[in-house]
Amino acid sequence: MISKKMLKALNKQLNFELYSAYVYLAMAANANTMGLKGFSNWFHVQFQEELFHADRFYNYILDQDGEVELEQIDKPKKEYKDAQELFDVSLEHEREVTRRIYDIASLALEEKDHGTHSWIQWFITEQQEEEANVKDIKDKLKLAGSTGQGLFMINTELAARVFTPPAVP
């Protein structure tokens, strides 16, 4: 059984993962509007990943005999000036997710909740990968510029991304 404080933190993160999905869905729509279908695909896959993460929090809360508390989801920003801004905002967002995941891990240690501490490690590794992937795309955009052949090549690369639910312990 988890503490009330931990339950509150897990529910807060569940809701933030749902908000994250919403953010990425809005980004996918905006990239599509810009004619960047590959970028749109990348963000749509990110949307699916965030839903997967939310589902993991949902199930963990229930497995710990906790009560799921769903909150209202804030409206995300819907317009971005270009692909670079999309990925600048995406990296900022992923860093916020990482900070929140670390806070849950720290709380688990503080409360000697070894089960939650063990469980949250998957998310810590996932966040390292998420940030690295976004930084890689930002670096490519910086090299390629926001128009022309370089942008076309990155758009083509991002179009190939597919969602594959990760194997989880």
Automatic annotation (TrEMBL):
GO terms for cellular component: cytosol. One of its GO terms (molecular function) is ferroxidase activity. Gene3D superfamilies: 1.20.1260.10. CDD domains: Nonheme_Ferritin. It comes from the Bacteria. The keyword Metal-binding applies. Keywords: Cytoplasm, Iron, Iron storage, Metal-binding, Oxidoreductase. Its EC number is 1.16.3.2. The keyword Cytoplasm applies. It is found in: Cytoplasm. InterPro entries: Ferritin, Ferritin-like, Ferritin-like_diiron, Ferritin-like_SF, Ferritin_DPS_dom, Ferritin_prok. It is an enzyme of class 1 (oxidoreductase). Fe cation binds at E17, E50, H53, E94, Q127. It catalyses: 4 Fe(2+) + O2 + 6 H2O = 4 iron(III) oxide-hydroxide + 12 H(+). Residues 1-145 form the Ferritin-like diiron domain. GO terms for biological process: intracellular iron ion homeostasis; iron ion transport. Iron-storage protein. Belongs to the ferritin family. Prokaryotic subfamily. This is Ferritin. It comes from Seleniivibrio woodruffii.
